[in-house]
Amino acid sequence: MIWDRNAARSQAPGAALRATGPAKSLVRVACDAGGTPTELLLEFLSKYTSQRYPGQLGQRLPVAAYELIENGIQYGSVAKEVIFEMLERDGWVELRVTNHAVPARVSRLREQIGKIAADPSKAYAEAMQRSMSGGKPMLGLARVSHECRMELYLEEGSVGEVLVVARCRR
Prior knowledge:
Elements: H1 12-17, E1 24-31, H2 39-52, H3 56-75, E2 82-89, E3 92-100, H4 103-118, H5 120-132, H6 140-146, E4 151-156, E5 161-169
Antiparallel strand pairs: 1-2, 2-3, 3-5, 4-5
């Protein structure tokens, strides 16, 4: 599902993200644009989520976090930070990445999330095929939805500002 905060006031996806309860912030990290997530950050997220959410959820969340952070750094502006947040709200766990991108990349991201939301399994299979044929796989977000079983949303803010939200039930 795609959520554009300027157009979502009457749409179900927007209503779903504007949850009634307050969010409990668990983790918030700013990454340098153009950098890469450090092993230390990923190690922390893996240990934190496995302790906070025993079982499969604790194993899926660091994979999703890694893919979202990598995507935000790789496709975002080198002039701005990439912000990663993990929150709990109304029985949901949300992973949120905010960054800035040029309009063409925002448009491509909107299209990609739309395809993934329409059919996560098909989007994942297509990304895997691209990967095997030597093309640019664009596997990260499809992996978040398919392997990690998380819903994806896109919020567009000021010019170039994007927020990708992946969420699942606790």
